[in-house]
Amino acid sequence: MDRFFFQLTFFTYVAATAGYLVHLITLRKGVERIATYILGAGLALHTITIGIRWAYGHHPPLVSFYDVFSFLAWSICAVFLLFQAGYNLKALGAFVSPVITLFMVLSMMHPSQMLPLPPALQSYWLPIHASISILSYALLTLSFCISVMYLIQEHQIKKKQLGAIFKRLPSLQVLDKMAEKCLKVGFPLLTLGIITGSIWAEQAWGAYWSWDPKETWSLITWLLYAALLHQRLTVGWRGRKSAYMTIIGYITLLFTFIGVTYLLPGAHSYAT
Fold first, then answer.
1. How far apart are the first and last CA of the chain?
2. φ and ψ of 268, to 5 deg
3. What is the DSSP track for 178-234?
4. Can you tell me the distance from the alpha carbon of 138 to that of 119, in angstroms, rounded to the nearest whole number?
5. Is the dihedral of CA 107, 112, 118, 124 positive or negative?
6. How far does CA 35 lie from the centroid of its chain?
């Protein structure tokens, strides 16, 4: 049953992505609103999917890559819809929805069966640590997408050939401000995710920090985002430097989240 809803969710996200791209290309009135409604329907279906898997497995579906990628897509979608309701950046959906769809594809590439939880994961810290961490990833994903939009818009202005894409994207000031808002919320959540993970590690393995590859790269990622936020708040970093640093931070975050598990397996490796 959950597989049926998962596939239905996926096709709904694809339809929403198509709608956002049509709006970005044509600027047809109402298309962006329809795409947002479709994305909202996809979020509802996705919530049902996660709920079914939770009920079936008797634990939060946050362990395998199938479930983690799925939950990350769900989180990005939920955060984006909340963000869009508050700020209405019409072009943002064309950049965020493909990322949501991509994580759904990554989820589909892994086995969907739910395996019994290893003893170390049989803890109330599982939903706390995993949900906080993934929520921070969702907000940092928005910051990444907005930074990409910033660089595209800046390139258009720098060339002094303001093409059609210029009219479709918000001003540089708005984009920079929105990226900072996401960072200001995403970074504290990332910090809280690391702290809760350390507390959980002490209960499970007897040490708060063991320099496991995932822990090491989590620290590297945290330091990059801490430096970025520090530069923005104290030195006044804005514009291109901040956008590039945000993108570098997000690439490091993805490596920590995905690459470390495949290339540097350790105690934090997910079952695939």
1. 21
2. -95, 10
3. HHHHHHHHHHHHHHHHHHHHHHHHHHHHS-S----HHHHHHHHHHHHHHHHHHIIII
4. 28
5. positive
6. 19
Of 138, 125, 100, 121, residue with least CA distance to 20: 100
> In the predicted model, what is the mean pLDDT of residues 198-208?
80
How many Cα atoms within 13 Å fall on the side-chain side of residue 47? 8
- Domain chopping of the chain, boundaries: 1-116, 131-272
Number of helices and strands in the chain (H, E): 10, 0
DSSP letter for 166, please. H
Contact 114, 61 (CB under 8 A): yes
- Which residues touch 56 (CB under 8 Å, ≥6 apart)? 2, 114
pLDDT tens digit sequence for 212-250: 888 888 999 999 999 999 888 887 777 888 999 999 999
Share of the chain above pLDDT 70, in %: 93
pLDDT tens column, 86-119: 888 888 999 999 999 999 999 999 888 887 777 7
Helix (H, G, I), strand (E, B) or coil at 138: helix
Distance from C-alpha of 71 to C-alpha of 59, rounded to nearest angstrom: 14
What is the per-residue burial (b if ≥16 Cβ within 10 Å, else e) of 30-58? ebbebbbebbbbbbebbebbbebbbeebe
